[in-house]
Amino acid sequence: MAQNELKNQIRRLRFENGEMTQQQLADKVKVTRQTIIAIEAGKYAPSLPLAFRIARTFNVCVADVFQYDNDTAQSQ
Amino acid sequence: MTKKEEAWIGLFVGVPILVVPSVVAVFIAYDKGLSFALLLMFTGTVVWGGLLWLLPYIQRRFRKDKKVITFDERDQLIHKRAVMASYVALWLYFVAACVITWCLVGPNGSISVNVMPLTLVGGLVLFNCVQGLASLIQYGRGTKNGAK
Description:
heterodimer, A: mainly alpha, 57% helix
């Protein structure tokens, strides 16, 4: 699966949750800030456990955080 | 120190400072007839150069401050891919070394056995260089937007 097929709402959710910084989110889900940056930019697709940890940090389900772009996938 | 910085240091410091001088020391000892030191130092060089890629995993295991995350799943994936690329390059290097030597010397020729450890050292240098380059390329792709 190419990384550009996977969209995410992490940046918006961070600002909606007390303007959480990337470092704060990274500390909560136990990764580095560079990984959060790469995920937000769509350069890295997180593992399933990490995706669940991110979703639980924002008290939402995984589908609310990550969206799979089916149209982009089919055109490739 | 970030993993990207470690890759830069490994590429431009680790190889010329660690690998090359240790090999030179081996040949100096050999020239002086210290066969025991030769075996010890050469083994150390091969083990150090061939197993150095395990260091991040060992560091992670014995890290005292486990609250600070310095090697996460993305770093692990990048490191794994870099090591795989290094081993592929190493294999191609040895294939090329065998074929080129055979072409240059010919089927009835002969070469000194000193070529063999030299070939191995070249492979070690290549391994570390490719690993460093592969790490830097992957980190460069994933961190275009570094701003908060």
